[in-house]
Please model this.
Amino acid sequence: MDVSFLGGPGPQRAVGVVAPFDFALDRELWRWVPDGVSLHMTRTPYVPVEVGLDLARLVSEHETLSEAVRTLVAIAPEVVAYACTSGSFVGGTMGERAMCEVMSRAGAVPAITTSGALLEALVELDVRRVALVTPYTLSVTRSLEAYVAQAGVTVSGRAFMGLTRHIWKVSYREVVDMARQAARADADALFISCTNLPTYDVIPQLEAELRIPVISANQVTMWAALRRLGTRAVGPYQALTDPAARSGPATPGVDPGPVVPEEEQQQEGWT
Model:
């Protein structure tokens, strides 16, 4: 069949994404992306270091970021996003801003990081007290707490797993259990850290149960990147991406639905 009359695919706007070498959730990032926008991924070089503050610093070195962004220049992205939470909060708010400047110079385009996007989302949702969920060790979790505090936001509660490897084995059920633990104290929102922790499907359930906005590392990254393009992330029943959900994601007393079976939850990563 002659399809030449179709004229070819429509134009695509490009978002460049730099991720650590072990990032495994490319498919989850795409779930927030609307038609007409394409993600173009690149990764930092492998380093044989266990998960922790040292690894966070290694995967966010300025020269490493510059080289990664330069690999994306040929496809002309309109914005570049660094999809790594710990790597972008380990240097504090000043370190995060310096990373954005380095990436922007390397690609001659606007640049964001996951941790910078987190602070942007907290402002958008008018959050003054936040509960934190992380798969990290105590030292990495404390580094996140310090980063949030530098932005003037109080950490009301936390739950962490202390993992230094095999974070891809964390299930949706475990994420939900940690969220319930962290959100026991009064909080305006809950943040689930780590871009290699799958969260897309649990956000609506947790918002319905906890009655507060629930944001995650991958969600805020895509929301902020797409915002730079003047378009919205695709995330129905998620307060950050769907303003209609901010008035209350569910009627009190309504069962938010079952947790996804664990056999469907195996994902890889730590970031």
